[in-house]
Design goal:
The complex is a heterodimer of chains A (368) and B (197).
Chain A lengths: L1 H29 L4 E6 L3 E6 L4 H7 L18 E4 L16 H6 L1 E3 L9 E4 L8 E12 L4 E8 L10 E6 L9 E6 L9 E7 L5 H9 L5 E8 L10 E7 L3 H14 L5 E7 L8 H10 L3 E7 L11 E2 L2 H12 L4 E7 L1 H12 L9 E5 L2
Parallel strand pairs in A: 1-5, 12-13, 12-16, 13-14, 14-15, 16-17
Antiparallel strand pairs in A: 1-2, 3-4, 3-5, 6-7, 6-11, 7-10, 8-9, 8-11
Chain B lengths: L6 H9 L12 H6 L4 H30 L8 H23 L1 H7 L2 H4 L4 H12 L4 H29 L11 H16 L9
The chains are: A alpha/beta (368), B mainly alpha (197).
C-alpha cells in the first residue's frame, strides 16, 4: 500500500520535474539572444543582452519612456519609433497606434522584445527623465480622501508645471510586485529638490492604499520623471482651468507658476466638488484671487444640500462653466482639464466645443 | 492492440465522420468564443491541430512506456494534462524564437488551448480505442483538422450573418448554438461511412 503511494508520488513528481527541467533548459537556450546593440536617436549606443522588452531594457540603461500602466500594454504611452525592421505590429499594440504611426514604425516599447540590434528614435526630452530616490517629509489629509504627500529628492528635478511623475511602490502585504502609478506634481516648478503630490484614496487601489495606510514620514520611495504634455501654452487667450478631486494638483502647480508673472491673461479656475468636504486649498486660491484681478476661483458643489451655509456656485461643473462662458460672450480661450475621464468628456463635448474651442485649444490629463 | 485499421482511414474518420466538435461536442468553449472572426478562427484552428497532433503521440509514449509498466493508468488524467501544458509552453517558446510571424498569428491562443477539452479528449480517445503510435499520430492530426474545418466554417457563417436581420433574442450565442446544431446534423450524414475503430 505505502509502496504504491510512493510510486505514484515519485512518478508524477518525476514527470513534472523532467518536464520543468526541459522547459528551463530550452528557455535558457531558446530565449538567449546574446549581446545586442541599441542605437538611440543615432547618437547613443547601448550594449545590452537581448530577451527582455524594449521598455525594461531601456529602463535598466536609465532611459525612461513614459508608462502609466507599468508595461502591461494598457496605457499606450511608451511609444518609440523603431527604425530596424522587426516585423508587423502586434494585435496588443494596434488599439494604441494610428495609421500614420504604424506606417512610420512607431511601436509600444513594452510589447516588443529586443531580439537583435535595433535602431530606435525617441523624443529628445525623454533624456531629461531620471530616476530619483525620494524621502517622505510630510504626509497629511487635505480632505477626507485626499492626502498631500511631500517628498525630498536626492537630486534636482527640472519640470514644467503641470507635468507628472511616476511613483514606484514596493511589494507589501498581498501585493508581490512593485507597482508604478502616475501622479501630477502640485508644487511650483521653481522648487526643484522637493515635490508635492495630491493622492486620492482609490478603493482597492494598490498604490493609493499603500500611501494612505502604510506610508510614514521618513520612508523612502522611488520616482521617475518628469513626463507629460499638460503644461501652459504661450498665447494671449483667456485660460479656463477645470478640475475635479485630485485633478487640482497640476492646476495648482500652474497657478503657482502664473503668480510669478502676475496673471497677464484672464484666468478662470472651475473646481467641481460634491460637498464642502471635497474642497481643498480654498484659502490659497481665495488669497490669490483677492490679489490679482485676472484670476477667478469658482468652486461649485453638485450636492449643496449636504453643505448648509454654502454661498458659492451650485450644480454640475459643466453647467456652472457653461453659464460663465455664455455670460462672457465670445472670446479667444484655452482650456486645461484634469479629472475623471467622464468629467473631461462632458466638459469637452458638452460645453467647450459649443463655445467654439477647437481640439488644439483643449489640453487634458485623464485620471483613470 | 486494437483492430488493425488503416491509419489514413482513421485520419479521415476523425476529421469527418466523428468530428471532434460536431459529433463529440468537445472544445466547445473556444469554438463559440473565437469564431467571431475568420482570421482568428483560422489561427486557433491551426494551433489546435498542431498541439493535438503532437500531444497524442507524446502521450501515447507516456502511457504505454511509463504508466502501463508501472501500473499507474489511473493517473493518466493528471499526467496527460501536465504533458500537454508543458508541451504548449515549449512550443510557444520555440515559435516565438524562430517564427515571429506565426507567433503573432497564434497570439494568445496557444496558452489558451492547454485547457481546451478537445486536446485531452483526443488523447483519451486514442487510449480507449487502443491505437498504435502511428494511428494515434494521424488520429490526432485528423481530429485537429476536423476541428479547424468546423471552426472556420462556423466563423464564415457568423461573418455572413453579421449583416442579416436576426431576432434580437437570438442574436449572439443563441443563433450560434442553432448554427452549430444544424452543422452537427449535416455532419451526421457522414456517420457510418468510415468507422473509427
Amino acid at each position: 500500500m505505502i509502496f504504491e503511494v510512493l510510486v505514484t508520488v515519485v512518478v508524477v513528481g518525476g514527470i513534472s520535474a523532467i518536464l520543468s527541467a526541459l522547459l528551463s533548459v530550452s528557455d535558457a537556450i531558446v530565449n538567449n539572444y546574446g549581446d545586442v546593440k541599441i542605437t538611440v536617436n543615432k547618437k547613443r549606443n547601448i550594449d545590452t543582452t537581448g530577451g527582455s522588452t524594449l521598455l525594461s531594457t531601456l529602463g535598466t540603461e536609465k532611459i525612461f519612456l513614459p508608462s502609466a500602466c507599468g508595461g502591461k500594454g494598457s496605457c499606450g504611452l511608451c511609444k518609440a519609433r523603431v527604425v530596424t525592421d522587426i516585423g508587423p505590429v502586434f494585435p496588443t499594440e494596434t488599439p494604441y497606434l494610428n495609421k500614420e504611426e504604424i506606417k512610420s514604425g512607431v511601436r509600444l516599447a513594452c510589447q516588443i522584445k529586443v531580439k537583435k540590434d535595433l535602431e530606435i528614435e525617441i523624443p529628445e526630452e525623454l533624456f531629461n527623465i531620471r530616476e530619483y530616490q525620494a524621502r517622505v517629509i510630510s504626509l497629511h489629509d487635505v480632505t477626507y480622501d485626499i492626502k498631500e504627500l511631500n517628498l525630498v529628492l536626492n537630486g534636482d528635478i527640472s519640470f514644467k508645471a503641470g507635468q507628472y511623475i511616476q511613483l514606484v511602490v514596493p511589494p507589501y502585504g498581498k501585493i508581490k510586485e512593485s507597482t508604478m502609478r502616475a501622479y501630477s506634481i502640485s508644487s511650483p516648478s521653481s522648487q526643484k529638490r522637493t515635490i508635492q503630490l495630491l493622492i486620492r484614496l482609490v478603493p482597492n487601489g494598490i498604490v493609493t492604499t499603500y500611501i494612505h495606510k502604510h506610508l510614514n514620514e521618513g520612508d523612502e520611495l522611488r520616482i521617475l520623471g518628469p513626463f507629460g504634455e499638460f503644461y501652459l501654452r504661450h498665447s494671449s487667450s483667456d485660460i479656463v482651468f477645470v478640475a475635479g478631486g485630485s485633478g487640482l494638483a497640476p492646476v495648482k502647480a500652474i497657478v503657482h507658476e502664473m503668480v510669478k508673472t502676475g496673471f497677464e491673461r484672464k484666468t478662470y479656475f472651475f473646481f467641481g466638488a460634491r460637498t464642502t468636504a471635497d474642497l481643498m486649498y480654498t484659502d490659497l486660491f481665495r488669497r490669490i484671487e483677492s490679489k490679482y484681478d485676472n484670476f477667478h476661483y469658482i468652486p461649485a458643489l453638485s450636492a449643496p444640500d449636504d453643505s448648509p451655509g454654502w454661498k458659492g456656485e451650485t450644480g454640475l461643473i459643466t453647467d456652472v462653466m457653461d453659464s460663465y462662458l455664455t455670460k462672457q460672450g465670445s472670446r479667444e480661450r484655452e482650456a486645461y482639464l484634469c479629472g475623471s475621464p467622464g468629467m473631461i468628456e462632458a466638459c469637452i463635448n458638452g460645453v467647450l466645443k459649443k463655445h467654439g474651442l477647437t481640439e488644439n485649444e483643449i489640453f487634458y490629463d485623464k485620471f483613470g | 492492440m486494437g483492430v488493425e485499421l488503416n491509419p489514413f482511414v482513421i485520419m479521415i474518420a476523425a476529421a469527418l465522420t466523428s468530428n471532434m466538435i460536431l459529433s463529440n461536442f468537445l472544445g466547445m468553449c473556444s469554438f463559440i468564443a473565437v469564431s467571431r472572426d475568420l482570421k482568428t478562427a483560422n489561427g486557433l484552428g491551426l494551433a489546435v491541430t498542431f498541439v493535438l497532433t503532437f500531444t497524442t503521440v507524446l502521450n501515447h509514449f507516456v502511457h504505454y512506456y511509463i504508466l502501463i509498466p508501472l501500473g499507474l493508468e489511473y493517473l493518466r488524467f493528471i499526467v496527460f494534462i501536465i504533458v500537454i501544458a508543458a508541451f504548449v509552453q515549449l512550443l510557444e517558446m520555440i515559435i516565438d524564437r524562430f517564427s515571429p510571424a506565426l507567433y503573432i498569428s497564434l497570439g494568445i491562443f496557444l496558452p489558451l488551448i492547454t485547457v481546451n477539452c478537445a486536446i485531452l479528449g483526443g488523447v483519451l480517445f486514442m487510449i480507449i480505442r487502443e491505437y498504435t503510435a502511428l494511428q494515434g499520430l494521424l488520429f490526432g492530426f485528423g481530429s485537429g483538422a476536423g476541428w479547424w474545418l468546423a471552426i472556420v466554417a462556423l466563423a464564415a457563417i457568423r461573418g455572413r450573418l453579421r449583416e442579416k436581420d436576426i431576432p434580437p433574442q437570438l442574436n449572439g450565442t443563441g443563433i450560434t448554438l442553432i448554427i452549430i446544431g444544424i452543422m452537427a446534423m449535416a455532419f451526421i450524414g457522414f456517420s457510418g461511412m468510415v468507422p473509427v475503430r
